[in-house]
Amino acid sequence: MEKAAQNGHLDVVQWLYANCGEGIKSDAAEFAASGGHLEILEWLHSKQGATCAESGVELAAENGHLEVLKWLSERASQEFNSSVMDSAARNGHLSAVQWLHENREEGCTTAAMDGAAGNGHVAVVEWLLNNRKEGCTTKAMDKASAKGHLDVVKFLHTNRSEGCTTSAMDQAIYGGHVDVAQWLKHNRTEGWSEYTPENAMERVASDGHLECSSGFSPICQMENTPPN
């Protein structure tokens, strides 16, 4: 029943309920919410008042199922927590973030902006900056650097004060993101960790980024000092 609910097969869910004598599975609603299948959620709720655990709400937010979130909030009296907005922000679902902001009181944590930054969702990062007060941590720029999101790195550098750690440069190099590594070297003061210059080229090659070696070579030859 859980798989049928997750994949949106209401007829299968109904058949299993009618013919297998197993009742409503406790996590069927969670799977339906994760998959965004509102019709199944409504049917499950009508039979046994079934709702989903908080993890199901988080999965609905993570996957951007705004109509499911609205129904869980307004019709099923489902409990929410701050992880719901965090999840929506992390995966770039701005409309869900905005609805939660306007209609729920749980808010979010710094994980919202950190996660959105790490996945390159600069529009969500900007909206959170302008509309929420939680801010972010150094993880935001570190994660954006690790995944090569230079636009996000620049935005955070200009608009936030948390900065980054040496992990930003380390992971930009290891991820093959030449443009990010070069920008960090010339615009940030954190530098890299002590082992990076010696191991960077070997790591770049072992990770299959040989095409980036010419770009990283001058970076790795620079002294680990703040920019001029």
Automatic annotation (TrEMBL):
Q: Which InterPro entries does the entry link to? A: Ankyrin_rpt, Ankyrin_rpt-contain_sf, SecEffector_AnkRepeat
Q: Which Pfam families match?
A: Ank_2
| Superkingdom of origin organism | Eukaryota
What is the official name of this protein in its record? Answer: Uncharacterized protein
